[in-house]
Amino acid sequence: MSKSGSTSKISRRTALAGLSAGAALLAMPRLGRAADETIRIGFPTPLTGPFAAEARDQVKCAELAVKLVNDKGGIGGRKVELLVRDDKLNAGEAATRTLELIEKDKVHAVVGALSSAVQLAVNEVTRARGVIYVSISQSDTINEAKDFSKYTFHEALNPHMTTAAVARQTLKKGMKVAHLVADYAYGHEMLRGFKRAQAAIGADNVGEILHPFGAADYSTFMPRLMSMRPDVLCISNFGRDQANAIKQAVDFGVKQQMKIVVPVILHNQRLAVGPDVFEGVVGGANYYWGLEAQSKSAAAFNAAFKAANGGAIPTDYGAYGYSGVGSLLAAMQAAGGTDTDKVVDALEKLQYDLTKGPQHYRKCDHQSVQSVLVLESKKKAAMAGENDLFAILANDTGSDDMLRSCSELGHAT
Amino acid sequence: MDLSLIIMQLLSGIALGAVLVITALGLTIVFGMLGVVNFAHGALFMIGAYAGLYLASLTGSFWWGLLLAPILIGAFGMLIEFVLIRRLYGRSIDDPLLLTFGLSYILVEGVRIVFGSDGIPFPTPPQLIGVLDLGIGFFPRYRLFVIVLVAVVLLALWLALEKTRIGLIVRAGARDPVIMQVLGVDIGRVWLAIFGLGVGLAALGGVLAGPMRSVNPEMGSLVLAEAFVVTVIGGLGSIVGAVVAGLMVGISISLVALFAPEMATIVMFALMAVVLLIRPQGLFGVRGRTA
Predict the structure, then answer these.
(1) Which CATH number goes with the domain that contains A311?
(2) Do A253 and B130 touch (CB under 8 A)?
(3) Is the N or C terminus of chain B more exposed, i.e. has fewer CB atoms within 10 Å?
(4) Could you tell me how many CB contacts below 8 A there are between chain A and chain B?
């Protein structure tokens, strides 16, 4: 796996062989944890399955973050290596791969996961073994005291922040809201977030439908959703589910009667079904390349990504891969190595600005405090180019007020 | 819960069932006549969607894609039969099963390499965009079209099998291929045509499903599972069974979605379990059949 640094290993191997003969050869992997050795970051993500498009962007961006650090000579002279594993969007698979990464590949930290359920499984494994985990999938649960550990960091937005920002842009007092929700952790958390925001604004809930995760057909839910006669339909699902659900809602003429709102509007899914289907759909986002008009960090990130990927632009979930790995590496830089306690300390103190403006991990729950974007999908005629997908409706600056309080989450304050 | 809602729900179920019927039909015909369990059926469904999309963008018309993709992919199916499957007749049923299983991986990876693994948009034909006011509610024009087209294809297929000389040979060939050969019929050509027909139906299902969901390399895997459930419920090899079971599954999913939406996917498997308990050979299957 590690190509660089092999010469120094060989020299140590010969030295050790002189001391303890053949036994040293067997012990090599363990003795390998020395200061000059490669820094290994485990990266489980669902390369196969309905979130594959988003997962591949995460990997590209994570690789970019690693490359930029290596180009500058690594961390304290040590090269960084990214070990990507396919978690197949399955919690059991993710736990096994993560365990392998820790036990067999001896990674120094883990970044990754794309599904809210899978990240909790990864977190179970990493926190039990005292390995740092930076999650880049949306979750509220991971902030809460029962799932938290000092090794757990959450770089992604959480459903509470996302739904609050989206609701502020789309809901008004007295509006009727219906929900179509994927029946697993992500959907449930988004629904809870929307309902909390709805209650604060004074909008009414007229009904909610839970759909099986990964469904290909949503037509059977449409007549009932239409009969609820809402002003706004919130579709809380992810990946291909989002594309299919919106496409079929539009086929049924839903947009003529109500506005479609999603917690997270996905770049790749908008590409997958085209501008006409997504036209007018509003949703939250952590990142959109068009932010470069108002943010120098975004412009720099776009430029670096384009240079490394033949002119392609980075996407929302890709940006998480970049800032998740990037913030970890910045903390390792500050801590002067991979000592877990020192890196945790450095992450807690870290102020970083990698893709869109200042971010930091809140002390009590290690949630990244960051800006939230609200985007609206443009109609075809309004697009300046093929990448001009969304209009930025809001760019809410990150603050602690966006998050649930530390005491609400069960943390000692 | 008013009546119009239930009728709308029934209609969604029939539209859903129509695509199931077309895909399950191809699977069941190939099994019934050739004794081949085609595990590449889902992948060929997906290839059909891509071919339809490609041909539609090449000719500028959805209708050419709809017409040509099943023919082209059907011909590709004949090539598969001629080059690969033919060699396995007379051997254990597992051999063609494993062959087609491997083939499905090759096809899916092939599409990933050529078209990428991201979903790509398949626009609805402009004539069928929008909804039709049925008096009790709105229903997408395209889905109504799918119901009608599937009904026409079924009728044509029934006429071809029951009323023509070729249909007679096909039916006889399924009953007793040896006697057919003794009578001087080249059974190999019949099997070639049947496999092509089965694959063509899978491709037709793919093109029809294209404008309803996003087109991606994995779209066939779920469809394969559904098609198997439908053929098992209807009885392996039974054409009538595939039609009845396809509609039954579609309508069940739809009605369950009305009352317990999170159960919508499971109901199909529950239905299969119940049928297998009561009638292990399926609704229209023949008991003890070993193909």
Answers:
(1) 3.40.50.2300
(2) yes
(3) N
(4) 114
